[in-house]
Amino acid sequence: MAVICPVITYYFASYLRLLPRNCKFNYGFIFYCFWLVQEILKSSFTVIKIIWSRQLNITPSFEWVEFKDSAFNDMGLVVYGNSITLTPGTVTVDTTDGMLLVHALEQSSINDLHKGEMAHRINKIVSF
């Protein structure tokens, strides 16, 4: 279901010409969806460990995250912000000038975003 819904949504959005002409997804977004589901599962287990631990050893933080790859257009920014929010333990709070304000339960989640793997994968699927 996690793959079927985005495919159907993309099909109807492109059929109804709701997508901007200069922004088109290639079929690599299917692989991105699988990768994102894997990241969601890993983060879910991390949050479950935090919840079930007797000592609450979390380091919540707010931090601005900038893009490592070339500047995203609006579509890439939306996909990036929503992908961060879908991952348990992280929430995108604000966007300003190509940067996202992210709240995370663990500093390691912010560190993973600073590495830029998610931004790099999104850059591959969104063409300019």
UniProtKB/TrEMBL annotation:
<protein>
    <submittedName>
        <fullName>MnhE-like Na(+)/H(+) antiporter subunit E</fullName>
    </submittedName>
</protein>
<keyword id="KW-1133">Transmembrane helix</keyword>
<keyword id="KW-0472">Membrane</keyword>
<comment type="similarity">
    <text>Belongs to the CPA3 antiporters (TC 2.A.63) subunit E family.</text>
</comment>
<keyword id="KW-0812">Transmembrane</keyword>
<dbReference type="Pfam" id="PF01899">
    <property type="entry name" value="MNHE"/>
</dbReference>
<dbReference type="InterPro" id="IPR002758">
    <property type="entry name" value="Cation_antiport_E"/>
</dbReference>
<keyword id="KW-1003">Cell membrane</keyword>
